[in-house]
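Predicting holo structure, adenosine-5'-triphosphate bound.
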Amino acid sequence: MAKLSLRKVAKIYDDGFKAVKNIDLEIEDKEFIVLVGPSGCGKSTTLRMIAGLESISEGELWIGDLRVNNLQPKDRDIAMVFQSYALYPHMNVRDNMGFSLKMNGISKKDRNLRVEQVAEALQLIDLLDKKPGALSGGQRQRVALGRAMVRSPKVFLLDEPLSNLDAKLRVTMRSEITQLHRELGTTFVYVTHDQTEAMTMGTRIAVMNAGRIEQYDTPANLYYNPCNKFVAEFIGSPMINMFNGRLVIKEGKVNLKIADQSFELAEEVKDQLLVEVEDQEVYIGIRPEDMHHKAEGLNTSGLNVIAKNVEQVGSDTFVYFDHPTSSRELVARFSPARPVKIGEGVQVQLDLNKIMLFDQKTEASILNRIVGEDFDK
Ligand code: ATP
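Done. Tokens:
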């Protein structure tokens, strides 16, 4: 059993900086957890505290039934894979992979057996006699994974393991690592700043910001039911659109005002409201795929915008535009069936069932949207 439990864990560095602020995180046995967030939010610090490479300033870390705050890294039954691979350049692949076994006094025969077993699983058999300098980035990364695997640890910690690889190889390695996770049936904790990597790999994802966990949830919930504006904007590519708007209550109806246009709040969304709404300022979030190119002659209101930039990417067309209620450029994902030209005026129709609403003061979501199971792995 390798359930991991962080209870009110904090990290205060020697200079007094609090890099991790009292986080709670329960990681079940065999889960694939991703810590994701912008640079400097405390992901690596959290991972290094789990590994024992950084002391825990406050709070408790439990692995299974054992409180491990003061346990040495080597006694935690955890293996860590770094972004830099950290391979020994003068040793061949076989010796790199077998190094920790050698340190633990395992005989040469048993070492070789285990290394070959793991090399087989990772398709490294033909490379066992090569030095790291003669390997490609992807192969080095596989050796680093292999070196962690030979010890059969209870928990794998991976710190941005793919960031040195080119885009194509990253995609291949992503699925190799998730497949490896399924085969090994071990707990994985994976750090990345790349939300696509997080969304495609994690069974659950902790979105971190400035030393705190904003939301710890399934990929589907993070995407469709983000708890605040930060999570809504961090998850999803291109980024969610955010309008400054207003909720206006009129004769029992809730209307949504965006600039001088008014839309009635959909019944479905009304049912999801977490609070009794009043006339109030809100941020209205809507994902690019929920903004449609309004068909000619259709008699529903949409936003009139000018296409500032148009990107054709095969099956989709991304149309970028400005709007007076948003400080940043907005984007709609249209089907390429009817092409749009730069400078053309277009009517963008909002799918009002899909909008998200955030309080302008707290930035917390004021909706609770129940997400179906289908999206999750
Ligand atoms: P990145 O994606 O850039 O690696 P991260 O989310 O992993 O970022 P950490 O490396 O955990 O962030 O760092 C969190 C914060 O703690 C940062 O502001 C960093 O500057 C600070 N920090 C890290 N190590 C130390 C240290 N030894 N002393 C003081 N502050 C530190």
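The domain at 4-230 is CATH 3.40.50.300 (Rossmann fold).
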